[in-house]
């Protein structure tokens, strides 16, 4: 009789194969929310390098965060990644950028979607170094 660990490994390998086949994209694959909302790939087309010229600062992006993110990201227990201060937003900036570029935030069912311009401004702010409010006016 096979040892339990060998049996588990074989079962896991079989399950992984079945999952890979079931989840592989074929002709019948359904588009993601991002593909439906941004069919030309606008989510990923935001700045990957800081552009020349004036850089966005926290006072440029915080009104967007307050309006579009803080229904879920302010409030304490049970609320993920607090986005209520410069320090908290800057702390989560890398995750925010990744989620914005994948169009996974705000979630499709949140009812407060970002415009393409808002999404690009937030990503550019992160790419350019998350300048704080005291950095306004510097280049």
Report on this model:
The chain has 139 residues and is mostly helical. It has helices spanning 4-23, 33-37, 58-68, 86-91, 93-101, 116-127. Residues 6-27 and 30-40 have low confidence and may be disordered.
Topology (elements, then pairings):
Layout: H1 4-23, H2 33-37, H3 58-68, H4 86-91, H5 93-101, H6 116-127
Principal-axis shape equals globular
Work out the number of β strands: 0
Q: Please estimate the helix content.
A: 40-55%
Could you name the ranges where pLDDT drops below 50 across 5 or more consecutive residues? 6-27, 30-40
Terminal CA distance: 70 Å
Discrete helix count:
6
Approximate strand percentage: under 5%
Give the biggest sheet: none
> Rounded to an integer, what's the Rg over CA atoms?
20 Å
What is the mean predicted local confidence, pLDDT?
72
């Amino acid at each position: 009789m096979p040892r339990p660990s060998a049996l588990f490994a074989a079962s896991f390998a079989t399950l992984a194969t079945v999952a890979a086949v079931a989840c592989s994209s074929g002709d019948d694959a359904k588009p993601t929310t991002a593909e439906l909302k941004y069919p030309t790939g606008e989510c990923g087309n935001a700045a990957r390098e800081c552009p020349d010229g004036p850089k966005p600062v926290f006072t440029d992006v915080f009104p967007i965060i307050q309006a579009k993110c803080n229904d879920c990201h302010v409030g304490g227990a049970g609320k993920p990644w607090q986005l209520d201060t410069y320090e908290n937003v800057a702390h989560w900036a890398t995750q925010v950028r990744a989620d914005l570029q994948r169009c996974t935030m705000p979630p499709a069912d949140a009812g407060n979607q970002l415009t393409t311009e808002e999404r690009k401004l937030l990503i550019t702010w992160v790419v350019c170094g998350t300048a704080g409010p005291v950095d306004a006016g510097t280049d």
